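Sequence and structure are kept together here, with a separate record for every protein. A complete record is shown below as an example:
=====
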Amino acid sequence: MLVPPVAGWLAADQLAHPPRRPMQDYHLEFLSDPAAHGVVLKSFVCADGTPCLVCEPDPKGVLGKRGQVIREQLTQKGLTLPAPGSVVGSLMLVHGRRGRKEDYLLVAERFCAVGFRCILLDLPAHGEHPGVTACFGVKEGHLPAMALKEAAAKFGFNSEPAGIMGMSMGGAVSIRAAVEKDAPWRAAVLVSTFDSLDHVVLHQTSNWMGDWLGSAWSRITGWFYQRQAHVEISDANSIALVPGLKCPVLVAHGISDRVIPVECGRRLYAALPSSIEKRWIEIPGADHDNVLITDFPIYAEMAEWMLRHVPQ
């Protein structure tokens, strides 16, 4: 029975200390010429060391190709859009496990094209963040509001109105951020987000080793993770938090997600309070890694949700 302990330690280490994703060629291309994407970029580091990017619409009204597409899609849906180059609010974009803030530059290009300023941050153990441990929202829930507040103070803009969007682990962080006292978020979008981390770990280990060994592997992984991250895997429990959400929430999930099964998203959505406006979207054919790059117009759906709920 040496395999489950060794496998559990390795799995826990991957959770607590995921390999950092290096800068990609498309990141460097975007950073070298943000004007070609219709945006202006500003970088800063929060007081606690969290690296951030602020991505704003080009004040000249220039649009990149992705910006042109999303404006056309929203116009076809009958929306009246802000003039290109204008800002009607801010969006915090929160990456997933093994991601980094630059992964969301192309997402920000689209949101900027319809009038939003976007703030992108590196979570602990990701990108250039000095933190070395990922806690799946348990210890990171304060970071989005902190980054928004510090960006507004540094660059002289109003921190409200604001919305938050997160994918996978970033969705769990976004839920924590949205239930915090005095949270500034007027709307949230959660993409491919888990209901509870222990459900996801059990799903993965059972797929690899069957139900019996998978259950043992899952428990051992949790034991090692607690010792590495100093939080319990069971503490990363979004489904216990979402009843406390007060802003409108859109939940989107890929039908073919093999990392976080669509059932996890459905359970999360079902737990949302009936008192808020909410929407569920299933993305046909989408797995975990391609959920934002299928033919389904998910960006138009997310942008419409934010435009309806964030601006004053």
Remarks:
- The chain has a mean pLDDT of 95.
- The chain has one domain: 3-309.
- The chain has nine helices and eight strands.
